[in-house]
Amino acid sequence: MSQPLVGKIILITGGTNGIGKATALELASRGAELVLACRNLDAGEQVREEIRGITGRDAARVAHLDLSDLTSVQRCAESVVATTPGIDVLINNAGGIRRQRALTPQGLEETFAVNYLGHYALTRRLLSHLRRDPICRVINVSSIGHRFSRGIRWDDLAFERRWTPVEAYTHAKLAQVLFTRELARRHGPDGVIAHAVHPGFVHTNFYADADRAPVIGPVARLILRRFALSPEEGATTAIHLATSDQATSANGLYWSRGRPTRPARAARNPTSADRLWRISDQLIAQAEATLPSA
């Protein structure tokens, strides 16, 4: 059974295209009020107007968020706290794969920051603002790619020794699933329901670089045309977790194809989940020590 969304406030990152946009449009059509946290404000305003056209009401606001910059994460969280009475559902959807290694303004590896640590920092800053009535929901849009990670690089989170786009991405997605597990363990008793979701192989801008690649481009286009889901299809599991009573009957699960499934062994290690949480707090504290005062 799905819960009514009228009066519910949902924050979604990366809601301007692909799965995130499809999720935002559907949730708004069901009555939710949305906060679109995105890097491109013009794109955010376009989606806001599209939502207004669909719903006939001003159902969304746009907040600037650059997940690669912890200053932006901090300011986004502060803005959300100041302008909303609370958040009922937090959907950490934004992400991507980089073609070259890059560092964030705080010196962190960018793939790790955008896909994992930025969302971790945003969630931690918003924890006290999540409305437990009696529960709130945190949905981390992850990937089956976490299964291909070799494990968390405890001594090389910045990938200084060896970096490849795929390895950096799968590493960040493993961190995301571990974070989901630990968030549920630590804050489940406080009313926080957290789940990770693999949306499926979805035809979005995420795969645009592969589509244009000179060697694998034709193969990528063939795979996308024949096997990829639409963004609307890819959004269904996250929407289910945001609205269904079933999502509240358990906590800290990894979902794929609309149902809970067993994640990789590395993602089920409670010691790793606890260690990652503590290291993430340390990384954020170190970075924020250098941030300018508000």
TrEMBL record:
Domain of life: Bacteria
Pfam families the UniProt entry points to: adh_short
Keyword list, A-Z: Oxidoreductase
Ranges of compositional bias, category Low complexity: 257-270
Keyword Transmembrane helix: no
GO molecular function: oxidoreductase activity
Region described as Disordered: 252-272
Protein family (similarity comment): Belongs to the short-chain dehydrogenases/reductases (SDR) family.
Name this polypeptide is given: SDR family oxidoreductase
Organism encoding this protein: Frankia nepalensis
